[in-house]
Write a structure and sequence with these properties.
Layout: H1 4-17, H2 25-34, H3 56-65, H4 77-90, H5 93-105, E1 110-113, E2 129-132, E3 138-144, E4 155-161, E5 172-178, E6 184-189, E7 198-208, E8 213-214, H6 220-236, H7 247-256, H8 263-290, H9 298-321, H10 346-352, H11 363-374
Parallel strand pairs: 1-4
Antiparallel strand pairs: 2-3, 3-7, 4-5, 5-8, 6-7
Length: 394
């Protein structure tokens, strides 16, 4: 049984063999993965030791104290938070060995090819087609949208329709797509912030070998649920210090600019501060629950709270700043690798937060999930449940 003392011993061995001051970042991260100290709850040989997930903080604390580099988790968040747990659960041994190490080290960035122009909230209605070739591979044609990191990604998790003659949830298959393959075209999708953080991805006769199928043919919706549950935890349940996230900048402004204060703004700030702290602590509890197994639908509730709070807090910040809040520093077209909510001014936070109630599952869809799967309320009536996808109105 691997305990905290054993993990400290293994971490000390890693640091002795690969001193951070004398070892390149990539080489150190590879050595950490091979030592089973990347994600300790993963199996041996896949970056872990089969240890309790709660012990990861022991390793992280020892490495941080020694000044060891991390893998820049914000840059590779889709790979870490969505692709990795799905590959671990449904991948073949060959897929796990091929993808998990470069994913965790950060050598290969991942993106998510799920949403489509006609299949966003109703993701199961997707129309991207994957047709099997005589040789066993697949030819994929379609369009995906709102794809974060597609412009820097090497790999993508992709769901496509492989059987249009069955109900929409039953005819989907899950693939791992090489973004450098012929037929993959990435176009920037400029947002209200001026940036093109998202992308459109067009797939034209893209050939994917059957060895890059994840899970069984037609079982893609079930595989995708693992990805989506982890995505909502990754978005809504991120670890933050007190006054981390959106509440930090507005609290700082309140303390440093007393001339901006009013009684009404004070009451609203107090309310949002308490709600942000409650959400932060709930996220800590959720992460503790993850120690016992796969994430549940609690992530949907956390993601709901994340979106609402970000929008309300950023709106309060703009009001607090008055005319200053209407200024915007730079509308230059950029294609950033990640979203920086706190590195820019209030106007950026206000505009960017509008997307929080759409990305990672719309708030309306998540409300349904919480109502039906957490509270046990009756499902909404559906007329498309037993209808073949090809017969649905579009």
């Amino acid at each position: 049984m691997t305990d905290a003392a054993e993990l400290k011993r293994r971490t000390a061995q890693l640091l002795a063999a690969h001193p951070p001051a004398d070892t390149g970042t990539t080489d150190f991260l590879k050595a950490r993965f091979d030592a089973g100290l990347a994600w300790v709850h993963f199996p041996e040989g896949l970056g872990g030791l089969g240890a309790p997930r709660s012990l990861q903080v022991v390793v992280d604390a020892e490495l941080a104290a020694a000044g060891a580099p991390d893998n820049d988790p914000r840059r590779i968040g889709i790979g870490l938070g969505m692709a990795a747990p799905t590959i671990l659960r449904y991948g073949t041994e060959e897929q796990k060995q091929r993808f998990l190490r470069p994913l965790w080290v950060g050598e290969e960035v991942w993106c998510q090819l799920f949403s489509e122009p006609g299949a966003g909230s109703d993701l199961a209605a997707l129309g991207t087609r994957a047709v099997r070739e005589d040789g066993g591979g697949w030819v994929v044609n379609g369009q995906k949208v709102w794809t974060s990191s597609a412009h820097v990604a090497r790999w993508a998790i992709l769901i496509a329709r492989t059987d249009p003659d069955v109900p929409k949830h039953a005819g989907i298959t899950y693939f791992l797509c090489d973004m450098t393959d012929p037929g993959v075209e990435v176009r920037p999708l400029r947002q209200i912030t001026g940036e093109a953080e998202f992308n459109e991805v067009f797939l034209t006769d893209v050939r994917i070998p059957d060895s890059r199928r994840l899970g069984e043919v037609g079982d893609g919706w079930r595989v995708a649920q693992t990805t989506l549950n982890n995505e909502r935890v990754a978005i809504g349940g991120m670890r933050l210090p007190r006054e981390g996230g959106m509440i930090g900048p507005v609290s700082k402004t309140w303390r440093e600019r007393p001339e901006l204060r009013t009684h009404d703004l004070h009451q609203r700030l107090l309310k949002l501060w308490v709600e942000a702290e409650a959400a932060r602590l709930t996220g800590e509890r959720l992460r503790q629950q993850l120690v016992a197994g796969q994430p549940g639908y609690e992530g949907s509730g956390m993601k709901l709270a994340f979106a609402r709070l970000n929008q309300e807090i950023s709106g309060l910040e703009v009001e607090l700043l008055g005319p200053e809040g209407l200024l915007y520093d730079d509308w230059t077209m950029r294609r950033p690798e990640l979203v920086d909510f706190t590195g820019r001014e209030a106007g950026y936070r206000y505009l960017r937060s509008k997307g929080n109630s759409i990305e990672g599952g719309t708030s309306e869809v998540l409300l349904n999930i919480v109502a039906e799967r957490v509270l046990g309320l009756p499902s909404e009536p559906r007329t498309d449940k037993d209808v073949a996808w090809k017969d649905l109105a579009r």
